């Protein structure tokens, strides 16, 4: 496997963040973004962006009344 | 329907079934509801979708094999109920792909913005400025086909393969929709961030100035 250049690393950032990558490539990209002034900040930003989306879309538990209604359906 | 009738004839529901199903539902109901809220973009419809999912799951509970992935099984039922009743009949979406938008749109915009650069940590300032309603609003604005994969990947945490199974589409399609969805999401988030920024920039600095 040939070493990736910056452009290739940046193309793989989503897959890397999604954990959709074999271990060798994963380790290579991890080392690259840790050391590269070009890719590092971009990678960090995307990581925080994904975390933000997850965080901001959190919801509370199912309303108690709805839950009660659902479980009552099982008795029928 | 025929299968349901047959099943209920051959395998009457026992109290034990009901208990096992309740435990399963109890564990996954909150996250199913969160997904339903994002998918339908509406609380009332989300409650209806959750109920439909719950009933379908209960009716087909005899097909669930204990020890297999319960979450994937339930989300498959959720997505089918959603597609049957809530999604507009979508063909392959009409794509308005912004040509000039790359994967790092938001990062680049912040870097290019003098206003944001004046802040010590511009990226931090940008992300801190985005409110729950901004992120949800940006997500809601995406075309359905993009929205679904972004919800399943970025909020519900499913893998590409799992999403492919949930939606019955190839993995390559999942990836391309996810990447395009994330690009459009960034375009929308930048609009919100700019708006929030200008609003706060118009205000006098906190505690400053004799007004
Ligand atoms: Zn690099």
From TrEMBL, chain A:
One Pfam family in the UniProt entry: zf-HC2
Domain of life assignment: Bacteria
Domain Putative zinc-finger: 6-39
Name under which the protein is recorded: Mycothiol system anti-sigma-R factor
Primary gene name: rsrA
UniProtKB/TrEMBL annotation, chain B:
Gene3D superfamilies from the UniProt entry: 1.10.1740.10, Winged helix-like DNA-binding domain superfamily/Winged helix DNA-binding domain
Domain called RNA polymerase sigma-70 region: residue spans: 24-91
Pfam family, one: Sigma70_r2
Single GO MF annotation: DNA binding
Key words of the record: DNA-binding, Sigma factor, Transcription, Transcription regulation
SUPFAM superfamilies the record matches: Sigma2 domain of RNA polymerase sigma factors, Sigma3 and sigma4 domains of RNA polymerase sigma factors
GO biological process, one term: response to stress
CDD domains: Sigma70_r4 (cd06171)
RNA polymerase sigma factor 70 region 4 type domain mapped to chain residues: 138-185
Domain of life where this protein originates: Bacteria
The family this protein is said to belong to: Belongs to the sigma-70 factor family. ECF subfamily.
Protein name: RNA polymerase sigma factor
Protein's organism: Candidatus Segetimicrobium genomatis
